[in-house]
Amino acid sequence: MSEQQPTSARLVDRRPTISGPELVATLVPPPQFVHASFESYRPDDAYPSQAEARDALQAFTAPPAPVGRGGFFGFGRKKSADAGPQAPVKPGIYLDGGFGVGKTHLLAATWHATTGRKYFGTFIEYTALVGALGYAGAVKVLTGARLICIDEFELDDPGDTMLMTRLIGELTSSGTRIVATSNTPPNALGEGRFAAADFLREIQAMSDRFTTIRIDGTDYRQRDITGDAVALSDDAYRFALADVNASGERMSDDSFGDLIEHLATVHPSSYSGLLGGVQCIGLRDVYELTDQSAALRFVAFIDRVYDAQIPIRATGVSLTSIFGGGMIDGGYRKKYQRCMSRLNALSSSEIA
């Protein structure tokens, strides 16, 4: 009897769900950043803003200096007339910069350097938490945390704008500090997607909670990668599938169209549940996407694939060419560009 090889997984057969308590338990940095630190961050000397951002975050995580007092029982020291009024320290830092400049690394380093109760998640995970627990339930869970890290901060609709404004306001008012990353400065969130002017007050109120730090630089994921994501021939794909399974690991095997349809039936907060036990993702017959809702769901899925560092093997159109119909030039262009960068890296990476 021949030894049985592992069978391929079909992602479309999986229907993961995640509860509120399970979501809370996942609010930690992804595996690739489990050891991220300020010391392991390597700023590009050509872009001084990277080192400046690291230093600012290190200072942000440092415990507050004790207040000096003079005279008996701390009384009697007069405030210096030359000191002038001190600018209020804002409770949050907002890292604004292009994709691939190390923002998530710095966010995770901030999380690791902070003691006490703390949470780390993507914007979509926090909105999913509110959906699972209700607004009051989410506030109850998060209140009292010393630090909340929000990665990939994006406002795709007015409802999210008002929700996150309210949530951030309540948490910072109770003493929680917040660090967020985004490809868009806070006063431009929602630009080109909805009538942002109608929500200017909410956007400005949220922006006022943050000190914005701009990080410049080039996409580190592309420094050693040129061209588009690799598209395999049908024969090369079948060989990759057999090779992975023969190695004792598991490669998924789905048609691109089937996966796109399936993602519409799974809440984005549960996309990570599609990936359990899979060491490589296989996609057949990739084609250009022209439906924006489907494209954004695929972006959210790839974010979770990238967090898990699972390589991708695909046939059909190159994965870096799938955003069609003018989407790459629209209001979500930065999301698509970040996704293309990640798809190129995942398609070029070796199988773990």
From TrEMBL:
Q: Does the keyword ATP-binding apply?
A: yes
Keywords associated with the record: ATP-binding, Cell cycle, Cell division, Nucleotide-binding
Coiled coil found in the keyword field: no
Q: Name one GO cellular component term.
A: cytoplasm
Gene Ontology molecular functions? ATP binding; ATP hydrolysis activity
Q: Which Gene3D superfamilies match?
A: P-loop containing nucleotide triphosphate hydrolases
Might you name a Gene Ontology BP term for this protein?
cell division
Q: Name one Pfam family in it.
A: AFG1_ATPase
Domain of life, per UniProt, equals Bacteria
InterPro entries, alphabetized: ATPase_AFG1-like, P-loop_NTPase
**Positions of transmembrane segments:** none
Name the chain's protein: Cell division protein ZapE
Q: Which organism is it from?
A: Leucobacter exalbidus
